[in-house]
Design a protein that fits this description.
The complex is a heterodimer.
Chain A (H helix, E strand, L loop, with lengths): L1 H12 L1 H22 L8 H25 L3 H10 L9 H29 L1 H7 L5 H4 L9 H9 L15 H37 L1 H52 L11 H7 L5 H13 L34 H5 L3
Helix pairs in contact in A: 2-5, 3-5, 3-6, 4-5, 5-9, 5-10, 6-9
Chain B lengths: L1 H35 L10 H24 L1 H11 L9 H29 L1 H7 L9 H4 L3 H9 L13 H35 L5 H51 L11 H7 L5 H13 L23
Classes of the chains: A mainly alpha, B mainly alpha.
Chain lengths: ~350, ~325
């Protein structure tokens, strides 16, 4: 179990392996979506082409954009691209590397969709049934039909139930022909894509290996730096909140003791630690007052030093401003009671 | 460090298993692809041969290239082959060993596809139905050559009206399937014999050189993985230091610009350290703004590297 946890942590920490997992899942989702999709050819002359090509080309485009959206690193790329130069130069090679690796992963699901669509054959059959070579495949010689009529008949090929041109060209012959063309296109497309992927991957060590190592290192660095900065800020916020709340409760305890005009209770030695944790609030009424005050009048976002008396003024009439004005530099003058 | 060691052990033990696993998965995917592929022969005189042979040979090429792409070791081998010599000599025997092991693994899925295709028979029936001798079959014996070509092309399509009731259609189909399956089984037998002989006879020829080549090819693979892992660790430490320097320089800048009294409290020392001198909403906002507008330079060699842009460091 420990080993699995280590492996899982390693995979997660290595952003590339994690992204490979996401893109594999998207490819499977793309194949599943196609098989669940109910393809309905309209069987009308001009609509067929639009529908067929639309189903072939629009979902891949959407899947491509989705591949970018689901990739966490897109915001990192955008940030690195748009940040002001400041003290640190920008390396376009790193930006190019990040973009290329994201684009390659986003391309996988659309390629799977297009391949599955072409290999299945329904889209091409629907789109190009009106362009069949009737002379070679059937008997076009003895028809008295005009071109428009012929197109309308041919457009009904994908819809077997309403096809009425059996004497010109048999439905099965036409469907087989179109499907054969579609599958040939599909396999050629798959071969082309695999060849491209192979070339991209294998030409890199031959030409640009050193530059590649540099870009990869710095793109990982940018990602890690961003995560570490977020972690550091979160730690800081936690400590900030802790001290802020502690000072609030201390302030409350002091004010309450002053209001009631009796010294803080002397607790026995063994219960001192627990009493410390209670921060001077020991009954329901006091707790309710503290909660109400926390809601109505949160302390300012400025942690004063513990040596100074804490006078947030929360119990008084004047409300301390939550945002101390920026140009003010005399910090001591604001916080001291003098 | 412990994590590093666990990961290192995992890689050392599983490099070959991972590659074998990928090769097995690809072979299974190849079978699954064939069974889910809807084979439909066009049943037209010139198209049959192109379609049948295309389905038999184009997917194996794509599967072979896939096998090369998915195998990490092919990249390692290419890098080793193309790297400048530097201080380390290149051993061609190692590169040859890696190349042959990659090729063997990449060939499994295409061979599986071809064998499944042949054993199934549809491809060969589609491709060669037009090439059988019609005189051997009663139903096609006494027709004109053009007509017989047309009819033979329709043999793979059982439901076509021209050949639906032709008794010789089944004969041609069975004849071609028998050839196809015989070819399939023969190829399978030859390949298994070749693999058996290669594995059995290998120790007779130059075993020591083989052991060396295998060891160094493993070494190159592991070395590259560890280099990548070390780079990740390094960039993590680098980032950590860079951020600490950034917070420190912010603290210094705040000290310079504000007149806050020196802190003397003992109780909250630990928390104050974590706060790194940033104790105000304005200061936090300023820090975040600085982080966006002026990221610190990539140089952690100076202890208090830079301070709000006063000292110009060389740009990375």
């Amino acid at each position: 179990m420990d080993k699995f946890r280590m492996i899982f942590q390693f995979l997660q920490s290595n952003q590339e392996s994690f992204m490979n997992g996401i893109c594999g899942i998207m490819a499977l989702a793309s194949a599943q979506m196609y098989s669940a999709f109910d393809f309905n050819c309209p069987c009308l002359p001009h609509y067929n082409l639009a529908y067929g090509l639309g189903i072939l080309l629009v979902p891949p485009f959407i899947l491509f954009l989705l591949g970018f959206v689901l990739n966490n690193n897109i915001s990192m790329l955008a940030e690195e691209w748009r940040r002001p130069r400041g003290q640190r130069g920008k390396d376009p090679a790193v930006l190019r590397y990040m973009f290329c690796s994201m684009a390659q992963r986003a391309m996988i699901a659309p390629v799977v969709w297009v391949s599955v669509t072409l290999l299945d054959g329904k889209c091409i059959t629907c789109a190009f049934c009106t362009s069949l070579p009737v002379e070679t495949l059937g008997n076009a010689s003895h028809t008295g039909l005009s071109r428009g009529e012929m197109k309308r008949v041919l457009a009904r090929i994908p819809c077997k139930e309403i096809y009425d041109g059996q004497e010109f060209i048999a439905n099965e012959v036409a469907v087989r022909y179109l499907r054969c063309i579609s599958q040939a296109l599909g396999w050629c497309f798959v071969l082309l894509m695999t060849t491209l992927a192979f070339l991209v991957r294998s030409l890199r060590p031959c030409f640009t290996q050193a530059a590649f190592l540099k870009s990869r290192y710095w793109s990982h660095y940018i990602d890690i730096e961003r995560k570490l900065f977020d972690e550091t800020c979160a730690e800081h916020a936690k400590s900030f909140a802790k001290v802020c709340i502690q000072q609030f409760f201390e302030g409350m305890g002091t004010d309450l003791a002053a209001a009631r005009c009796h010294p803080p209770r002397k607790t026995p030695a063994d219960a001192e630690e627990a009493a410390e944790k209670l921060l001077g609030i020991t009954d329901q009424g006091t707790m309710n007052a503290a909660l109400k005050s926390w809601h109505r009048c949160k302390p300012p976002l400025h942690l004063h030093s513990p040596a100074l008396p804490s006078s947030n003024g929360w119990a008084g009439e004047k409300q301390p401003p939550v945002h101390p004005p920026a140009p003010r530099r005399e910090v001591a003058a604001y916080y001291s009671r003098v | 460090m412990d994590r590093f060691r666990m990961i290192f052990q995992y890689f050392q033990s599983n490099s070959e298993s991972v590659m074998n696993g990928i090769c097995g998965l690809l072979a299974l995917a190849s079978v699954k692809m064939y069974t889910s592929f809807d084979f439909s022969c066009p049943c037209l005189p010139r198209y049959n041969m192109a379609y049948g042979l295309g389905i038999m040979f184009v997917p194996p090429i794509a599967l072979f290239l896939c096998g090369l792409i998915l195998n990490r070791q092919s990249l390692v081998m290419l890098e080793e082959w193309r790297r400048p010599q530097g201080h380390r000599k290149k051993d061609l025997a190692v590169i040859r060993y890696m190349c042959s092991s990659i090729m063997q693994r990449a060939m499994v899925a295409p061979v599986v596809w071809i064998i499944v295709t042949l054993l199934d028979g549809k491809c060969l029936i589609c491709a060669f139905s037009g090439s059988v001798d019609p005189q051997n079959f009663v139903g096609f014996a006494n027709t004109s050559p053009v007509q017989v070509q047309h009819l033979l092309a329709k043999v793979p399509c059982k439901d076509d009206e021209l050949v639906r009731n032709n008794t010789s259609r089944k004969a041609v189909s069975r004849y071609l399937r028998c050839w196809s399956q015989a070819l399939g089984w023969s190829i399978l037998l030859i390949l298994i014999l070749a693999a058996f002989l290669a594995r059995w006879l290998r120790p007779c020829f130059n075993q020591a050189a083989l052991l060396q080549a295998r060891h160094w090819s493993n070494y190159i693979d592991i070395e590259q993985k560890i280099f990548e892992e070390t780079c990740c660790e390094h960039s993590r430490l680098f980032a950590h230091k860079c951020i600490l320097h950034f917070f420190e320089s912010m603290r210094q800048e705040i000290k310079l610009h504000s007149f806050s009294l020196p802190r003397e409290g003992e109780g909250a020392e630990g928390e104050e350290d974590l706060l790194r001198g940033i104790t105000d909403q304005d200061q936090v906002n300023k820090l975040l703004k600085m982080w966006y507008y002026e990221k610190p330079p990539l140089d952690v060699s100076q202890p208090q590297g830079w301070c709000g842009g006063r000292r110009q460091k060389p740009q990375h």
